[in-house]
Design a protein that fits this description.
The protein is of the alpha/beta class and 291 residues long. It has helices at 58-70, 74-87, 92-97, 119-131, 145-153, 170-177, 183-196, 213-229, 257-271, and strands at residues 10-20, 29-34, 55-57, 107-111, 135-140, 159-163, 199-206, 234-242, 275-279, 282-286. The protein has one domain (10-68, 99-278): Aldolase class I (TIM Barrel). It contains 9 helices and 10 strands.
Length: 291
């Protein structure tokens, strides 16, 4: 495998959650956040990561990931970081060889912001995770279908968590994201995932004002049509998430779980999709058995 020249790669870094059971249900995942996003969704929970800079060398982030995954002590972390600084290059295979303890986490999820805004950093981190024998997940709004396709062609992503924000029309996407121009990109990203047969979860966050029930039914109908075009697709679930207010915005009453169940019931009957409801902090309902 080719070396990743860490001295030439700076990452606009958002942070790390060492252990999460929410971002990839059924997995103990480390979540790595990359800063920057072209969208301005009204209720974005990670608004602080939409813009700004926190530039860090790739090798520093890689060192921390290896240490966190393998549960290394602070004393062990220091020589790893020192090696990265002195060598100025990282062979990805070497990262996993520097620790010998059994990892507690079994997956790494890239999130943001929009992680594909930094394609080299995203590819490098996913490659690092693969070298550590972790399953890899990608949370994306689908803004960059070409970059997504490249990662899938290189088999760097095991599961995609794709935001399904609105029907793929400019006016609907403008309301949901502040950018109507991204509707076509999001649709193309969905097609890429289905055509590449990658495990796919679509996440639709439901707020009181949007998307409406009619929009959600429209979105589900689009999925049914696309599944007919791409029978090889591996759409695992359509997740209806209860949208919550950010800490820094006026509180509002979220859509009730009962209402989400009503929507899920309608979708399941009309579309035969597997529907999952998530209301903070747990998955609370599925219309079909399975993972």
């Amino acid at each position: 495998m080719a070396e990743l020249k860490s001295e030439s790669l700076m990452v606009n870094f958002g942070g790390i959650v060492p252990l999460s059971t929410v971002d990839w249900p059924g997995r103990a995942a480390m979540v790595v956040f990359l800063r920057g996003c072209p969208l301005r969704c009204p209720h974005c929970q990670n608004r602080k990561l939409q813009s700004g800079e926190n530039m860090m060398p790739f090798h520093s982030i890689a060192s921390r990931i290896v240490s966190e995954v393998k549960g290394l002590s602070a004393a062990t972390q220091a020589p790893i970081a020192a090696h990265f600084r002195l060598s100025r290059q990282i062979k990805i295979e070497e990262a996993s060889q520097r620790a010998c303890s059994q990892p507690f986490v079994d997956a790494l999820v890239l999130s943001g912001g929009e992680p594909l805004l930094q394609p080299r950093a995203a590819a490098g981190l996913l490659r690092l995770a693969k070298s550590l024998e972790l399953s890899t997940g990608l949370e994306t709004a689908g803004c960059y279908p070409d970059r997504l396709q490249q990662l899938l062609e290189r088999e760097l992503v095991d599961r995609v968590f794709l935001d399904f924000k609105a029907p793929f029309r400019d006016e609907d996407y403008r309301e949901a994201t502040g950018s109507g121009s991204m509707a076509a990109s999001a649709l193309q990203s969905l097609k890429v995932c289905l055509s590449r047969s990658v495990a796919l979860d679509l996440r639709c966050t439901v707020f009181p004002e949007m998307p409406s029930a009619a929009q959600i039914m429209d979105m589900a109908g689009c999925l049914v049509r696309l599944r007919g075009i791409y029978p090889q697709g591996r759409l695992e679930s359509l997740v209806l998430q209860q949208g919550l207010a950010r800490e820094d915005e006026p509180a509002f009453e979220p859509v009730s779980v009962d209402r989400l169940q009503q929507l899920a019931g309608l979708l399941g009957v009309d579309t035969d999709l597997k529907i999952v409801i998530r209301a903070s902090p747990n998955i609370i309902w599925k219309n079909q058995e399975g993972e």
